[in-house]
Amino acid sequence: MASQTVENYIKTVYQLAQSAGPTVSSSLISEKLKTTSASVTDMLRKLASLSLIHYEKYRGVQLTAEGKSMAVELLRKHRLWETFLYEKLKIRWDLVHEIAEQLEHVSAPGLIEQLDEFLANPKFDPHGDPIPDARGRFTLRNQVLLNTLEAGDKGTIVGVKTQESEFLIYLHAMGLILHSSFQVREKMSYDESMKIIRGDGDEIQISLKTAQNLFIRKHSE
Amino acid sequence: MASQTVENYIKTVYQLAQSAGPTVSSSLISEKLKTTSASVTDMLRKLASLSLIHYEKYRGVQLTAEGKSMAVELLRKHRLWETFLYEKLKIRWDLVHEIAEQLEHVSAPGLIEQLDEFLANPKFDPHGDPIPDARGRFTLRNQVLLNTLEAGDKGTIVGVKTQESEFLIYLHAMGLILHSSFQVREKMSYDESMKIIRGDGDEIQISLKTAQNLFIRKHSE
DNA sequence: AATATATTTTAGATTTGTCTAATATATATT
DNA sequence: AATATATATTAGACAAATCTAAAATATATT
């Protein structure tokens, strides 16, 4: 059984590969995990020896099929625990990520299947991220980032791109709730900020940075 | 924050102090944790430096107030998680202990209080062990071991003394369910085994070893 | 009380994951 | 293409928790 450290590296490589292309560099990993690149190199050698990654010195890494399946399994565990913490324990959505980081390493036969059943097989976690099923398959969603919408477009918030607590608290304060709808009123060409009208009719101003971190399901005409 | 290893040692010292007097020897600890006594000595020095135990070479150890409160907090977490696994996830009672051994080390402000509330503040876990409240107080129960009962005595099973999976499976197979009542029919002086009549009227034979591991609330005349 | 046995501690080594500083390789710039 | 800069790796050390084998202390037995 893989150590927590190994699991964290694999999850990190998977996530970085999602956003930054299939091959991941040491520096990206060390930045994300807040370690030195020397530590990363050491660990990459270990992960390669465990057949979890393909690794050539100075050439970056890719997950093997085995590594990928471990990563997806971890994502499943993480997101199911997040759902439990949010739905059942009523823990604030900006706090559940940190706790799930610990819970995802708990390992016992049948545990995750029972948790999944208890939660009634949720397809998305409290941040709108898809929860892979037992076979590792995700429910796809056709989503775009808010900054790609134009004036007049209508949409629904279906997810957030980052889990940073500060961002989640900000969203809540702005009344930008998961699954709520809105319309884009105006897009400022100067700084690419936007004015949007929330479901309750209030108009608010959104920075580019915020818009780039919100996943939207665009309403068809 | 204490490492998982430190937490496991503290919990072990606490449990051994319960059953074998206030001062605990190295050999008891190494036996329970399946390590060498050399490792135990090393760790005892560390625990003492953390003010969790009183330790004098060759003289055994006792928990400090701080150590005791850590142990009780761990017991609380362990037993609440066991209750969750059993009541909500429907995991077999002989399996929940092992999983709770991992879950008890998860640490986050408010988590355990929310879990407690979600479970409606249970006072006993699936094995009948009392769950300390947030202040570390246990609900007491006046219980005796089954082997102290005499022919004719009636009682209710309120707990088990050991969590060994094999024992729990055996009890289930014998129809000895937590909270079920019975009457002692006969006590064999030869090997101290007993015949008891279960609630459903069936008569079964119980060895001394089994009787010594069952906590009973004796019915008053 | 002296000796034998059992228990506990020390000394020194090992594994995992980490670090700093120095070196090697790759990428960017002229 | 040569040089400068950024990135990655190696070498050597460290902390936590563990081990084996040897030495020290405590307990039991005669």
Structure overview:
Two copies of one chain form a homodimer. By secondary structure, chain A is an alpha+beta fold. In chain A, 41% of the residues lie in helices and 16% in strands. The first copy, chain A, is built from eight helices and eight strands, in the order αααββαααββαβββαβ. Chain A has helices spanning 4-20, 26-33, 37-49, 65-88, 96-103, 111-118, 165-173, 208-211; strands at residues 53-55, 61-63, 144-145, 154-160, 181-187, 194-198, 203-206, 214-218. Chain A has a six-stranded antiparallel β-sheet. In chain A, strands 1-2 form a two-stranded antiparallel ribbon. Chains A and B meet through helix 5 and helix 6 of A and helix 5 and helix 6 of B. Chain A binds a DNA duplex (30 and 30 nucleotides) through residues 3, 5, 25-27, 35-43, 46, 57-58.
Helices, strands, pairings?
2 copies of one chain form a homodimer.
Chain A: H1 4-20, H2 26-33, H3 37-49, E1 53-55, E2 61-63, H4 65-88, H5 96-103, H6 111-118, E3 144-145, E4 154-160, H7 165-173, E5 181-187, E6 194-198, E7 203-206, H8 208-211, E8 214-218
Antiparallel strand pairs in A: 1-2, 3-8, 4-5, 4-8, 5-6, 6-7
Helix pairs in contact in A: 1-2, 1-4, 2-3, 4-5
Chain A binds a DNA duplex (30 and 30 nucleotides) through residues 3, 5, 25-27, 35-43, 46, 57-58.
List descriptors.
221 residues, alpha+beta, six-stranded antiparallel sheet, two-stranded antiparallel sheet, 8 strands, 41% helix, DNA-binding
Count of DSSP H/I helices of chain A: 8
Largest interface: A-B, 19 and 19 residues
Distance N to C terminus of chain A: 51 Å
- Name the average pLDDT of chain A: 96
Helix content of chain A: 40-55%
H and E string of chain A: HHHEEHHHEEHEEEHE
Largest sheet of chain A, in brief, is: 6 strands, antiparallel
Structural class label of chain A: alpha+beta
Based on the structure, what is the oligomeric state of the protein chains? Answer: homodimer
